[in-house]
Amino acid sequence: MKPSIRVVLGVVAAASLTLAGCGGGEDVTETNTFPTENVTITLAGWSLSTTPEFKTLAEGFKALHPNVTVQIKEYDAAQYDTLMTADLSAGTAPDIITQKTFKNYYAYATGGALLDISDVAKKLPSTMSAKSAYTVEGKTYGVPYRQDSWVLYYDKDLFDKAGVKYPDGAWTWDDYAKTAKDLTAGLKASGSSAVGTYQHLWQSTVQGFALAQSKGADLTKPDYSWLKPYYTRVLDLQTAGAQPTFGTASTAKLTYQAQFGKQSAAMLPMGTWYVATLLAQQKSGDANKFNWGIAPAPQLDKSTAGTSNTPVTFGDPTGMSINGAIKDGAKVTVAKAFLEYASGPDGAKALAGIGITPADTSAAVAQAYFSLAGVPTDELSKFAWTKHETKLENPVGKYTVGVQNLLNILHSAVLSNSKTIDDAITEAQNQAKSTVLNQ
Question: Residue 244, Cβ neighbours under 10 Å: how many?
Fold first, then answer.
């Protein structure tokens, strides 16, 4: 049997690919006990020089199981799903497939590429809410090891230089926009070329917040008017010179790591994964050494703002699955054990120890996280990391990839000023109704 997987690879239409081998591991007999012989399993990863989690988990698991070697296969981060789909089709994919882009998880799960690991999910802590996101049609094909949420990074030294007050945890997006402009003016007056903020090129930086915070927002309903105030604000910041324009960021190939890490921007809305990267780059010299903190993501209105409330933000979990084509029972047993380790308390502590936000955020994990040298320990930073309602950027479903690709076209059109916000939204709505949502 050769099951098919539909994965959208950066275009509107889905590409249907045939994968080698049977999904689901129907003819695999697992070992009853953990193997005592030497076993090697392979793990998919990306950007290994700046993403230390894969090596950390591989070494941590080997410390518990000396007879197991976890070999990491590095993929180009920008082409991850394209390359992974090709390897699955060719039968050369790793044993453990990291789900980098959560919007494509539904296609992997329903396309027969992955092993049913419902038994692994049942063993994970009941407090781990992110694990439910991996259930498709009553079965689980992946488990989360990370659960990042988007927060606001801010450079205390640049705030001081501009004479602007730090975030207080009660900001709305209007407060954020005003502060970005104040920072830009204050920094210019002080002789600095830094700007107030940097929102990266991704559609997430606008649409992720809009979907999470806007009342009634739903990708499966072709009314995307809830995007308008978020794009209006970003365009205004670009016009005011408070952040680089979309065209400048694209042409100059700006990176969010350099914009914030090299102190070219005083604020950065970004996921909590950036903590580990910033710490590593400050240590290596790839980022400047300066005082920084994190604050809750700005809110739509005051109803969810402030430290007495629960801020609403977004963030997809990052998970791991097992290649459904594995026929070696011992490898399946070891792979399941690795997933239990990576997603469980031991893996969580190891990840927290390098500044990664794990899916399991127990009190012990939080203590390990804030004990790490360089992580800001002020009360607002702790609040931003520990207390928030994190909604999925990519709700699991058959329409998610198609709609998100349409909205990505909208994103580029609006921020490059090739279409007005209203025209771009109308076009996306019409295309969603006539194509994606009509399948």
Answer: 22
Q: Which domain holds residue 75?
A: 4-147+317-361
Q: Is there a single domain that holds both residue 118 and residue 215? A: no
Helices (H) and strands (E) in the chain, counts: 17, 14
Tell me which residues of the chain have a pLDDT lower than 50: 1-25
Q: How far apart are CA 402 and CA 9, in angstroms?
A: 10
Neighbouring C-beta atoms of residue 192, cutoff 10 Å: 17
Residue 376 lies in a domain: no
Two tokens, residue 323: 């290649």
| Residue 308: burial class (beta carbons within 10 Å; 0-12, 13-18, 19+) | exposed
pLDDT in tens, 284-298: 999 999 999 999 999
pLDDT at site 49: 84
294 lies in the same domain as 429: yes
Give the contacts of 262 (CB within 8 A, at least 6 positions apart). 287, 288
In a shared domain, residues 240 and 104:
no
Model pLDDT, residue 70: 98
pTM: 0.85
Give the pLDDT confidence of 75-106 residue by residue, as tens digits: 999 999 999 999 999 999 999 999 998 999 99
The predicted structure's pLDDT at residue 208: 97
Angle CA 86–87–90, to nearest 5: 90
- The alpha carbon torsion through 177, 166, 357, 250 (nearest 10 deg) reads 40
Residues contacting residue 346 through CB under 8 Å, at least 6 positions apart: 60, 64
Contact by Cβ (8 Å): 146, 358: yes
Assigned domain for 240 exists = yes
Do 130 and 205 reside in the same domain of the chain?
A: no
